[in-house]
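Reviewer comment 2.1 asked that we show a complete input and output for one of the modelled complexes. We chose the iron/sulfur cluster case, as it is the one discussed in the main text.
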Amino acid sequence: MQIDPKKCVACGNCVAVCPMGAIYIDRKINRAIVNTEECVECYTCFRGMSMERLPPTIVRSIRSVLKVFRLRFDPEPDVCPTSAIIPDELTWPRTVRRAFSDVTATHESTGILGRGTEEVKTNDVTNRLGEGRAGLTVELGRPGIGVWFRDVQQVTQTLAAARVAFEEKNPITAMMVERDTGHLNPEILNEKVMSCIIEFSVAMHEVESVLVVLREVAGRIPTIMALGIAARCDATGHTELEEILSDAGYPYLRAKTNVGIGRADPIPELLAEPALEGSA
Ligand code: SF4
Ligand code: SF4
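Response of the prediction step:
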């Protein structure tokens, strides 16, 4: 993203809008500047603010006059009064920033918006997590910090060494050049994104050892790591995770339960029911 210095009147509205803190007012030139290293191309500033088309010269003059009287010309807080915020023509590898950070962008590898994965939420129909396995999600960068792919790679390398099975339908897996080592495409390592999700599964008995290595790598990367873990319930609604997590010293809090409404296959018991009288 860039800000046109010919149009910007340094009202400062866009500074508060940027989730990465990448926009600042340069008081020497009295213009807003985007720190392109920190900008993740989320488009929040461009899409989230109303763009007015006031003439920059007139707005600057009004602001200067009002300043003399210790008054301010302040546009509404969600408005860029002079339409000074302009998207860049993104090229590879910078395009990866937008793919992971702009909620309206679709990932080419999975065809899904946002972080590019349905996670285990659609397990009813995708069956990505089978019996006897635990599915883990490692979310990096959220909220409000972001993450560099060089740090994402530290996590994927650690997990590859622990012999996890990376999820196929996930854009981070698609970025790996070697799954056995967890190496990502070297061209993206110096790109930053708002957040991303690494997904993988392990056998139940491997959960505790994976939690140990994740805790170790979390201490080495300068961002936030959030861990999610899922398993199939048995007929009584129980999973082995309760005991495994308790033994490993983690509180067991059931967050989301997928009740199995979204079935891919017909339910045999329902098919066996006789058709209602008069029904087609
Ligand atoms: S909102 Fe527009 S005019 Fe105001 S500081 Fe940002 S880019 Fe400049
Ligand atoms: S695109 Fe996103 S990260 Fe970049 S300057 Fe705008 S709000 Fe900030």
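The longest strand covers residues 133-140. We note this here for comparison with the apo prediction described in Section 3.2.
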